Description:
Layout: E1 6-11, H1 18-27, E2 33-39, H2 50-61, E3 70-76, H3 80-86, E4 91-96, H4 99-115, E5 120-125, H5 135-143, H6 154-166
Parallel strand pairs: 1-2, 1-4, 2-3, 4-5
Amino acid sequence: MAEPRIxxxxxxxxxITLGHLDIIRRGTRVVDHLIVAIAGNDGKNPxxxxxxxxxxxxxxxxxxxxxxxxxxxxxxxxxxxxxxQEVGAGLILRGLRAVSxxxxxxxxxxxxxxxxxxxxxxxxxAADNCQFISSRFVKxxxxxxxxxxxFVTPAVAQKLKARLKGA
Length: 167
Ligand code: ADP
């Protein structure tokens, strides 16, 4: 039997949105074992702690129907390629939104492929109703009292409101 295909989907997930979830769902069609890797501190100064971000992703992926692909959520720190090698992944999955993502992603693939030539990066596009969703704007809209129910799951919306109230 062929070796299981392991993929890493890395991100900040501050917090996880329906866009991320759509990419995770699509990722399960591409790999046999999907590791959602939550970046610890990447200089982005996340609103939620690593523990909270992990818990929200864990909670949300519970809603993904069983596709036969194992989905695991793991924290990581340091170089993504080192983490991918450590867990035996051959693929890095990233989501691509508008043109604005392209430049950054293009550079990241270029650098990562120099560091680890055997690792392939695969880009997935979210469904059209999820493409414009970004964690940054969800936080901003919630902070200003807007309705975020189209962008995140009810559990995440509740956590976000509570977090911003306490902030
Ligand atoms: P990072 O800090 O690594 O950009 P994010 O959590 O913002 O972390 O995003 C993780 C990945 O998910 C990135 O590849 C990003 O482009 C992708 N992504 C986020 N939101 C969406 C979306 N709405 N549609 C498609 N891809 C998305």
